[in-house]
Specification:
InterPro entries: DUF1761. The chain crosses the membrane at residues 6-25, 46-66, 107-128, 135-154. This is DUF1761 domain-containing protein. Keywords: Membrane, Transmembrane, Transmembrane helix. By secondary structure, the chain is mainly alpha-helical. It has one domain (5-156). It is 77% helix and 0% strand. It is built from 8 helices and no strands. Helix 1 runs antiparallel to helix 8 (133-156). The termini are close together.
Length: 158
Amino acid sequence: MELNYLAIVVAAIVPLIMGAVWYNPKVLGTAWMKASGMTEEKIKSGNIPVIFGITLVLSFMLAFTVNGMVIHQVGATQLAYSNPDAESFQAFMAEFGNMHRSFGHGALHGAIGAIFFVLPVLGINALFERKGWKYILINVGYWVVTLTIMGAIVCGWK
């Protein structure tokens, strides 16, 4: 199974677009700033090109990870890596190669990944940083929506 690099590139842009919407002051930006202790001065003090550049690199890494999370045939491909021309592998892929390859399935697994991975990771960090539930829910909500969209793109775009 070959990677759909175009789908991965498009999915990697999703966190930037969603961040611009989600953390906009007219949406949840003001609530996030209050919950996180962020100030306008702190925002303006950051090196924006570096922040967005690193964010894009990390988003590409995430998009590659989402690919393996939402497309189940990746596991079969990894098992057959030493012999992808094997008749049994070819028969398996002929029968099941496109099974569960839809936007809806990818969205579901993206959301599940956010709830069962991102929520615990961000939640634990936030608790030790003494952040409130509002902070946790704003950030986890962003990742649920973002990973849902990324999963839909990567899985459904054949």
